[in-house]
Design brief:
197 residues, alpha/beta, Rossmann fold, globular
Length: 197
């Protein structure tokens, strides 16, 4: 019996992460950067790509006034789905069992920020995404003249979101800035809902 319990404890915990955003926001480049792949050879995603990341997260436990650190492994299944207008109606086919939604915004694309907001607001109304953790990656913030985190926060009306726990992080898929921090936040937030330990 103890060996069964140990195996269950050591088994990777899985999370399904759906990565969406308008076309050319940098979704695939983010995934490639996180995976350590070449980011110079990215073409538009015409369907979907699934990548699995073995993620090790640190968990703090408070035992008799002493703090012991424990590491848990998570298997992150990231679904990177194309963002072209013709593909957006298919997004709903990927909602099932989604634990977290990463919404990628092109911080240099001021012209389509309203379209970006409308698409995100539509997603947040979907019953199959109810309760999913939401991370907004403001991508391409390494480009001069891009929108600030505060501008994107305002344009997307993020502070009005009550249906999901959310966070926004400026990032760069090219330099890797804040990508690990974003994934870490997603895992920490989602694991509270999904796992007992």
């Amino acid at each position: 019996m103890l060996s069964i319990l140990r195996k269950a404890r050591l088994k990777d915990k899985e999370m399904r992460i759906l990565m969406l955003g308008l076309d050319n926001a940098g979704k695939t480049t983010i995934v490639k950067k996180v995976m350590g792949e070449d980011v110079n050879t990215v073409s538009p995603t015409l369907g979907f790509i699934i990548k699995t990341i073995d993620y090790e997260g640190q968990v703090e436990r408070h035992l008799h006034r002493n703090t012991a650190n424990d590491f848990h492994r998570y298997k992150l299944n990231i679904w990177d789905v194309g963002g072209q207008k013709t593909l957006r109606s298919y997004w709903r086919n990927y909602f099932e069992k989604t634990d977290a939604l990463i919404w990628v915004v092109d911080a240099t694309d001021r012209i389509r920020i309203q379209d970006c907001r409308d698409e995100l607001q539509g997603l947040l109304l979907q019953e199959r995404l109810a309760g999913a953790t939401l991370l907004v990656f403001a991508n391409k913030t390494d480009v001069e003249g891009c929108m600030t985190k505060e501008e994107i926060l305002s344009e997307l009306q993020l502070e009005s979101i009550r249906s999901h726990r959310w966070n926004i992080l400026p990032c760069s898929a090219i330099t890797g800035t804040n990508l690990k921090e974003g994934l870490s936040w997603v895992v920490e937030d989602a694991k509270r809902r999904l796992f007992l330990y």
